[in-house]
Structures are given as structure tokens and as C-alpha cells.
Amino acid sequence: MLIGDDFSKLFRTFEHTAFRLEVRESYNAPREVESFRRFRAGEPVDLSWAETWFSMIRQATAEGRRFARVRVVSVPLSDYSRFGLWAAHHTCDAGEDIRYLPRDVAERLDLPHHDYWLFDSRKLVRMHFDEADKFQGGEIIMDTAEIVQHNHWRDVARHHAIRRDDFEAKV
What we know:
Low-confidence stretches: none
Organism: Streptomyces hainanensis
Number of strands: 7
Helix content: 40-55%
Domain DUF6879: 5-168
InterPro entries: DUF6879
Pfam family, one: DUF6879
Number of helices: 7
Protein name: DUF6879 domain-containing protein
CATH topology: Endonuclease, Chain A
Oligomer: single chain
């Protein structure tokens, strides 16, 4: 399992594309907790903790590399998903292509029930979380058939998903 710097290295070393499928209802990331609390309370939210991520996306985009993700969400949106949609505006401004797919559509499309990153269409990293939604690490999957299947799921998810701004206008 990759975690910490070993996991972070994946985002600095891919050549062309980094794609994420997010299917969980919430994520318990320690750095997000206070921002989420402030968002729910209607208070100003400080995203300075995410500046390293935004900077990395801006740099990758300037180099011609692409970050993209599809978020599978339940509609109506939970507080956590509304927070994610709000925060995605900043991530999209940095250069990431974030799209949304309603959970019922994802179910009809038979998309997986696990999160993953796919780097350059050939390196698959399955995300593992504990029962409290805390990230436990990324498992590199080497099986070619699984990698091909996850590429297919990426293509299906992106085809049916709605760009962040268009999705926000609908919900």
C-alpha cells in the first residue's frame, strides 16, 4: 500500500493523464475537517491547506499534463457533496477537469463501487478507506485485464458525467 510521500510521488511522475473516480459519500481527510465545518456553518472557508494541490495541478497543466476526475454523488446532494462541489470550483480554476455523475446513473452503468486513480491509462491505484472514511493507502494493481476494465469505466464515467459548472447549475 502506498501512502504519504510514496503515494504523492504518483502525482509528480505521471506523463500525460491522471484520472480519479470518486464513489464514496464522504471522505474523512484530516486537513478538510475544519474547512468542511466552516462551510456547513456558513463561515468563510480557508483553503490554504490545499494550495500545494492547486499549485501542482497548475504546473502539470502548464506542462501539458492533465488531471481529471468524475465524482459519483447522490442527489439531492449531502452537505459533504455540496462542500466538494463548492471546493471543486477552485480545483477547476487550477486546471483540473471535474465532472459529476448522479449515483443512480452510475449504478445503471455498472460502474465500480471503489475509488481509484489511473495514471497514463496504464498504472492503476485502487484506493482503500477504513470504516470512518479515512484513507488507508493506494494499492497498485498490475493485472492487465483489471487495468483495461478500469480504463473502460473511466471512459464510460466521463462520457455520462456533467462538467462541474453545468452540474452546479442543475442541482
